[in-house]
Amino acid sequence: MAVKVFKRYERKYLITRSKAEELIDCIGNRIVPDSYCINGSKYHIYNIYYDTENSDIIRRSCEKPYFKEKLRLRAYDNYFDTGRAFLEIKRKVGKVVVKRRVDISSEEANGFVTKGEKPVREDMQKINELAYFISMYDLKPAVFISYDRIAFNLKDDNKIRLTFDSNIRTRRDRLSFDEGIDGKIILDDEYTVFEVKFPYATPFWLSKVLSDLNIYPQGFSKYGEEYKAEKQSSFKNEYILSNTH
Q1: CA end-to-end span of the chain, whole Å?
Q2: What is the pTM of this model?
Q3: Which of 20, 90, 166, 243 has the fewest CB atoms within 10 Å around its CB?
Q4: Residues 6+ positions from 45 with CB-CB distance below 8 Å
Q5: E-strand spans in 139-229?
Q6: Residues 6+ away with beta carbon under 8 Å from 195
Q7: Which residues are CB-neighbours of 156 under 8 A, at least 6 positions away?
Q8: At 42, which CATH number?
Q9: Do 187 and 223 touch, CB atoms closer than 8 A?
């Protein structure tokens, strides 16, 4: 099974859907839908994030340290035909994002993360790297997050991708891809998370278009936003309960 490594920069923007349409209209002659966007249509991404009982990983990530890392199981639409997903560590060092991922089934992933049962691969290096990360924490499935994505590559540099994520749904029960794709919406339908992913630098012309359209970087972590909303809801419920006695 494939073991993959990604290293790149990622710059996020929280913009309205109308602004996203305006941007696509401006650069439409310079972009093409990526290979997942069949006939230019959106596709779906499904994630299960692993964390400790006390949410240590996401709590630290929300503090915006220089170095942070997360573990997640990610699947695409073909999961429902193949049963295959990717277990990956996503690390951010300064502004550089590095991902290590391995092709895996849900059963293998849960056995690996919760019981330490290593899957066997021809290249065990990344399996061992994942195992080391897992050994540092007492991890369990923490949250399901799915969303719709439309993605493009630049025609003159297909290493540069533009993604637009919307309809972000989350839940903390039924933590399996086989339990449906429903969940609580955590981003107003008027907005989309726009992201530029690039290996070195964004082209000057793209930076100028973004500036002309008043589109400026604004971080948005899907798991981070879910965690903050969950904590806020928990505090509100505790307040209500404390004032009913």
Answers
A1: 57
A2: 0.89
A3: 243
A4: 74, 75, 76, 146, 147, 149, 165
A5: 140-154, 157-171, 184-185, 191-198
A6: 10, 11, 12, 13, 162, 163, 164, 165
A7: 30
A8: 3.20.100.30
A9: no
DSSP designation for 66: S
Q: Which domain holds residue 10?
A: 3-242
Per-residue pLDDT of the chain (245 residues; tens, 9 = 90+): 444 556 889 999 999 999 999 999 999 999 999 988 988 889 999 999 999 999 999 999 999 999 999 999 999 999 999 999 999 999 999 989 999 999 999 999 999 999 999 998 887 898 999 999 999 999 999 999 999 999 999 999 999 999 999 999 999 999 999 998 899 999 999 999 999 999 888 899 999 999 999 999 998 999 999 999 988 865 544 434 445 55
Cβ contact 143:226 at 8 Å? yes
Residue tagged 């993605």 (tokens):
151
φ and ψ at 171, to 5 degrees?
-160, 155
Per DSSP, 224 falls in state H
Structure tokens at 231: 């904590």
Look at strands 191-198 and 157-171 and give their pairing. antiparallel
Domain tally, the chain: 1
Q: Rounded to an integer, what distance in angstroms lies between the CA atom of residue 55 and that of residue 217?
A: 27
User: Are 8 and 162 spatial neighbours (Cβ–Cβ below 8 Å)?
Assistant: no
- In this structure, are residues 49 and 58 in contact, taking their beta carbons and an 8 Å threshold? yes
The token pair that represents 126 in the structure block: 């990344």
